[in-house]
Amino acid sequence: MSNRPWRARIAVAALTAxxxxxxxxxxxxxxPTPSPVGTSAGPSVPAVPPASDPAGRAAALVATLSxxxxxxxxxxxxxxxxxxxxxxxxxAAGNQALAGVDTPADMIAKYRLGGLILVGFSADDPTKxxxxxxxxxxxxxxxxxxxxxxxxxxxxxxxxxxxxxxxDQEYGVVTRVTDGVTVLPxxxxxxxxxxxxxxxxxxxxxxxxxxxxxxxxDFAPVADVLATRSTVIGSRSYGAxxxxxATQVGGAVRGLQAxxxxxxxxxxxxxxxxxxxxxxxxxxxxxxAAALQSGAWPPFTAGMDAxxxxxxxxxxxxxxxxxGTPATFSHKLLTDVLRGQxxxxxxxxTDGMNMPPAKRWAPGEAAVRALNAGNDLIxxxxxxxxxxxxxxxALRGGSLPRTRLVEAVTRxxxxxxxxxxxxxxxxxxxxxxxxxxxxxxxxxxxxxxxxGSCGAAVRGPVTVTSSGGRDxxxxxxxxxxxxxxxxxxxxxxxxxxxxxxGDGAKDLRPDAAVTVxxxxxxxxxDAKSPTLLATYSSSRASMTGLAAVLAGKARPGGRSPVTxxxxxxxxxxx
Length: 574
Known about the structure:
The protein is α/β, with parallel strands linked by helices. Helix 7 crosses helix 16 and helix 17 crosses helix 18.
């Protein structure tokens, strides 16, 4: 683990904070302002470590925080509204039910929050079960929202450490901000391209745009190996081969964090090893501990080696390690395995606590259990006030050890100060030609031919059809084909048929000359078309890459990162 020196710094900071705070009392302090260290020698102000020492700054700051401030720093809820201070009546009602306040800024102030997650809906979204609202629309609105949130957080005692503002910008089916930004192809597309350098370059562009909008932690990349036909993970994974997925995860982490945005490896210990959906129930991992170590964890360890600042714990029952206990609440998995065996010293974040496996306990008890298991941040609690009060009561009652809470806050603050060292890009960098070129290169390299000639042009003119609800994607491909010199007709041409997330055999066309899978390619096993292609994504970049292949201007060099029965990984020979 010698190639992970920043973890050692965090550990030292945590130990320093524990020693400094061990003699301080647990009595409440009414105002969210820094308190002097020490209880008998009179007020003293410790020297502030330099900006080049994030761990030292975290240890110094954590020693000044009250119980209320400490508890607030481990909470990262969602909120209603697209502005920090001005929300609709409906959003105010949502915030009242969630936290007893009207606005996101009020929520930050009342509960002294360490972070906030920006949530939103998208059409093909397997995570929509816990997306209670949406507060992202366009980059300008997001930037104004994050600026307002940081202004509110700057007034807190922990204000010197910037507020964590996160979102699920995975690209592919889980993408929160879609308009006015560079949209990458899905993780599975990157796995098909098989070039970590392309992945890193694309994620560096994406990270710069997130940072420009004021987002400093992304709940990505998905490090789950697609060992089953999991519809909830699906194309969010880099593929079925743990070693190949590991190289891709490492590239994504390096690119994202080079731009000053924390990467989050998810969902430990490996959601792709169950086909069940944790947004509905508690998936069971039946594999042995050895099988998980060799088949599920290589992308996580590769991400850690690349410097990933965070890992998300999953609501998963790993029977071989801690049967019956979701990993989110498992000390064996998070403390003994993730920290002890795998050596991770960064921030561990829960998956959404508003998901069914976490709601078996009341919000306060669930938050305490999650902290005691080894999590450092509580994400998306279903009731902020109850979680806050439960943590505070447990701290003062002794069921949440002060050392555990201080350790968690120290890790969170260290990450915040690390992120603050990288200047954010300007809004003018959004969707630039350079960034689009990085996305285009990755998407073009992903296009795979699983049946038919390698790189042969489609016989024109072409008619583009699709399964229901994909008018926008058809229009994008039509424009890209036209730009590539292919005539497109409303009907009567050679049929190119598109299928995507959630589609099955019933959505195929037996008369299509070409069938294209824009999500996982499993559906192609039932397709009768003489030519079968996969883009794994319906992004503009993916449709541009597909058009080049259909026009005969590009060779489809991708290889399917999952096995499709009866079909090769590619018909193109390297």
